[in-house]
Amino acid sequence: MTQPTDGPVVLRGGTVLTLDDARRVLVGEDVLVEGGRITAIGPALEAPPGTTEIDATGGIVLPGMIDTHRHLWQTAMRGYGADWTLTQYFVWYYLEWGKVFRPEDIYAGNLLGALEALEAGVTTTVDWSHGLQTTQHADAAADALQAVPGRFVLAYGNIQDSPATWTGTPEFRDFVSRRVTGDDLLGFQLAFDVTGDPAFPEKPAFEVARELGVPVTTHAGVWGATGDAGIRLMHDHGFMTPETIYVHSASLSADSYHRIAATGGSVSVSTESEQSAGQGYPPTWALRRYGIPVSLSMDTSVWWSGDLFSAMRATLGADRSREHLEAHAKGETVTHAALRAEQVVEWATRGGAQALGRADLGSLEVGKKADVVLLKNDDSPASFPLLNPYGHVAFQAQRGDVHTVLVNGRIVKRDGRLVGVDLPAVRRRVEETVEHLRAQLGEEAWRQGMNPDVPETKILDNPYTYTDYQSDSTHGG
User: Fold this and answer.
1) Is Lipid biosynthesis a UniProt keyword of this protein (predicted)?
2) pTM of the full predicted structure?
């Protein structure tokens, strides 16, 4: 795969969403990038000789988006589980077929998923990689991420073994010593869940994370799987830290939200997932109430879209619909929406940077890392007029409008196309993985897996007797 070229870049004349502390929106200004960082923002900037000039007129320039929870290894099964519930997902991956993924299948899924994220303007992705049955699988995951010119965090996990076991092996320690090198484009976390067993079997894994000095990311508040008991165990043993990312957190009590807020953690909300799979109602309404920082994620392409435009849209819809529903139940009317478009755009950018402890990402400011996205599509009638930039990003834009993407100052997508990517070769790898999975399952199981049984529906007897208006009138109404 050919790597993008380096060199100064200037994006000229766009509407710049800085997402800085003042939340400035700069109309018709330039962003100059040199040496991997933003060196100037302003009108009609003077650029050094040899600078690549990109016309951003009529477009929106914003920080690269950040996804804090995505199972990249599952991308080779894109759309397969569209009709699954969370239970069916658990059965398929955790209990039955997740074991048949080879290292090369992890590589194929990660490669495709990483490119998909980058193509949609997601410049940083946390690969919640819980399919790493062996360190050979882990090496394949890391290899794929490093083959793509984006910014990634490998969140190492293994759903086929207990966290205490896999974090305690010499092979895991060897992987960490070889692959966790401080590479700015490849961060590292531990990814595992806390069941709530009073014996707290996950404690040794937390101790390993503490020893290594790396954050833990955990699926919390997943209905029927991880709940308040796990939060209490983490808190009582001192493992809730500002670096901890709690994924979903959709079915927790007030006590758990208070503990997360008090210890400074953040929540990764995967609204499309929570709405469809059953972890609980998307919790942004509760997180706002407790002042818990929010980032956004899309979870897995085995079900949902692989971009954060869909995540922003779904999050606004879920939060606002709950606000209206609760008001209507009390006979009231919502006259002003509490959650604004600007806030979800912030969650998709700055919120992710804060969750990852990356103060150098998430906003467009001089001196920060040059992870930059230009939304511009002159061929689309939906690209104008540009009246409310935040509203445009949250409700009007889509992945096809991502014109240019820079990561660490390098152009990785331009004029709507990824730079230097051999998609036919990626397709061949993915097709090999799909063929392997179908062969392992057999055709009948493969077909049944994506078409789970539909529960029988009982049609209620009509308890009412209807008559026509004339009859009602005849009988005195």
Assistant:
1) no
2) 0.94
